[in-house]
Design goal:
Blueprint: H1 2-17, H2 22-29, E1 35-38, E2 42-43, E3 49-50, E4 52-54, E5 57-65, E6 68-78, E7 81-89, E8 96-99, E9 106-109, E10 114-119, E11 122-129, E12 136-145, H3 154-173, E13 178-180, H4 184-190, H5 194-211, H6 216-244, H7 247-269
Antiparallel strand pairs: 1-12, 2-3, 4-13, 5-6, 6-7, 8-9, 9-10, 10-11, 11-12
Length: 283
């Protein structure tokens, strides 16, 4: 009986500690990884999981301080244009915190209590974490690694390509950018209970973090990350002050003061509602 219990414990421990950190997962996807973007998961009238998607791709950059994982920045690529989506770089954004460092499970925006979690072929943006970061309110959006679906038979792949091209043509002709998801990666995701899986992942990572003892090097890394973001804050404030002290900066300040004063005076004297008044000061 003791042998059976011991074997079961070993199996559980192996599964538990096999969980990857957010950085390990993202690095396993490769530097050139692209992700398809989806919104929150909802139920259709038939009771099936569904999510809306949009054209374009997400790219993720891992940020470092020396060789220490500091955070990520995400960019949205659409029609050749790159737009910054989120700055979760702990070296430049003081509200970003790594939960469970160095076994980081969540990149958290402390003010908004939201952040990123990576698991398998997915990257999730989650809102409303519990105090112990094992539960949350909802997955507000998620991203699937391109080309990560299991390979189907040749005949199925050909059929899939034909229908995907046909659907793409319809989307182009109707000039729609947001549609319900399609494709093998999407179908695989909707067949799973991703919310439950992420919560299980967070609980397993929490156990891993609780069992881990910070080393001297870990503490030194945390100190360096803290000093780096503090130094960056000092640098930004210095640069801002230098700009506002220039003639251009002072002119902007003066214009802002005049604009605020003009708006205040207009609102005090105008008897119309914002819908009825045509003056831009009433916006």
């Amino acid at each position: 009986m003791k042998k059976v219990v011991f074997i079961m414990c070993c199996i559980f421990s192996t599964t538990l500690f096999a969980q990857k950190t957010i950085f390990e997962t993202l690095k396993s996807h490769g530097k050139e990884a692209r992700y398809q973007r989806y919104g929150d998961i909802y139920k259709t009238k038939k009771g099936k999981n569904a999510a809306m998607t949009s054209s374009g791709k997400l790219v993720v950059k891992i940020n470092y301080v020396d060789d220490i994982n500091a955070g990520i920045t995400t960019r949205y690529i659409y029609k050749g244009k790159s737009t910054l989506l989120d700055n979760f770089d702990g070296a430049t954004n003081s509200v970003v915190k790594q939960i469970g460092f160095p076994n980081t499970s969540v990149l958290l925006h402390q003010t908004k209590n939201s952040g990123y979690v990576a698991m398998g072929n997915y990257l999730f943006f989650i809102e409303g974490f519990s105090e112990d970061f094992t539960d949350f309110r909802k997955i507000s959006r998620f991203y699937i690694l391109d080309g990560s679906a299991k390979k189907d038979k040749t005949s199925k792949k050909k059929k899939g390509k034909f229908w995907n091209k046909l659907k793409s043509s319809v989307v182009y002709q109707t000039n729609e950018n947001i549609n319900e998801g399609t494709g093998p990666e999407y179908e695989e995701a909707m067949a799973r209970d991703l919310t439950s899986e992420v919560k299980t992942y967070l609980k397993e990572m929490k156990a891993k973090q609780n069992a881990y003892v910070l080393t001297v090097n870990d503490k030194a890394d945390l100190k360096l990350l803290k000093e780096t973001v503090e130094d960056y804050g000092v640098y930004v404030r210095k640069k801002n002050k230098e700009f506002w002290d220039t003639p251009e900066g002072k002119e902007i300040i003066r214009n802002n003061k005049y604009a605020k004063l003009a708006t205040k005076r207009h609102l005090e004297s105008c008897r119309l509602s914002s819908n009825a008044c045509d003056d831009p000061l009433h916006d």
